[in-house]
User: Fold this.
Amino acid sequence: VPFDDNKTLRVNYVGGQDRFTTLTFDQVLNKDSELDLVAGKTVIVGLLATAADIQPAPLLSSAHGMEVHANALDTLLRSRFVRTTSEGVTFLSIALFVLLAALIVPRWRPVFSLGAVAIVIAAYVVFGNFMFNQGRIIDFVDPPVGLLLTTMAALSYSVVSERRSQRDLQELFGRYLSPQVAKELLQRADRGSLRLGGELREVTVLFGDIRGFTPLSARTPPEELVALLNQHFDVIISRIMENGGIVNKFAGDAVMALWNAPEDQPDHALLACKAALQSQDGLDALADSPVARWGFGISTGVALAGNVGSGKRLEYTVIGDTVNLAARLCGVAPAGEVWVSENTHRLIQGSLKGEELPPQPIKGIEAPVVAYRLKRTVPAQRMEVGG
Assistant:
């Protein structure tokens, strides 16, 4: 007979009066034939008619003391002993569940991890019921609780770690791309939609470059030239970002920026013009810098915005006639001036003043293009460009 640590026997309950032959005293007194039922049997005598001897017992809503004794005798006579698993087995079960959660959660998506944990707990319950029918009682509390706590801890760590990594990666990308583009690319990568292609949308594109850069680079040492470019780019980039623009790319002494992609910006044309005018003012205010002047061209229209390149290297940019027109306007705009397309001027009317220019012959465009020169809030300083 197996006993617990406190020298007690676990009774394997099978039921109450319905599971045992029961005779009342009047049956015994008045019908001698009933005595044949107890010949060679163990008989328990007790009270069932009163509520004086009620004991707590599993499987029974209200067990009388003699019913508890009947189940105890049934356990002994049929050797239906119930044994409890040792603390060592329980500890190993907890360790196994903790290890399982530590391996699954960091590698799987949260929804899959929680689903796997639920399946493991359900399987453990089924296994526990099977073991109980075999006379073994396993710990139904500690291993599942250990699994859940480890899962919650691992999920919390994964979420915090992933957000930190994404923030660091976005910050790193933001040094090479704009923060908006870096955020958009990371979100698309998480959704598994980072691929070639894009969408048609209205955008405003800005181009700017230094006038007379070739002769300037010829007479300026490379270290000083790079320092000059960085100083000017710092002014221009800060103005572009302050006005919600995205610095899309650099090409030598030129810069390209765009608005209204990938996120919507209702006043994208006005923001681009403000960025260009403020850049000109900021560049004129630079002290102790070599002679260098910038020209800007801005165009608004429909373009394809999205990822271009190949499967090995992608670049987020905009493509279309609107981009080409902005680049051409930048190429013909004199130093210190900002030229905008007709569409851009139409969108900023009432906010900024523009002077209509004679139709401009633009390379690659058959008909002359109507352009406007934006009036600056601060008069341009006269700076001579050598060469």
Q: What stands out?
A: The longest strand covers residues 293-309. The CA atoms of residues 40 and 316 lie 93 Å apart. Confidence is low (pLDDT under 50) at residues 378-387.
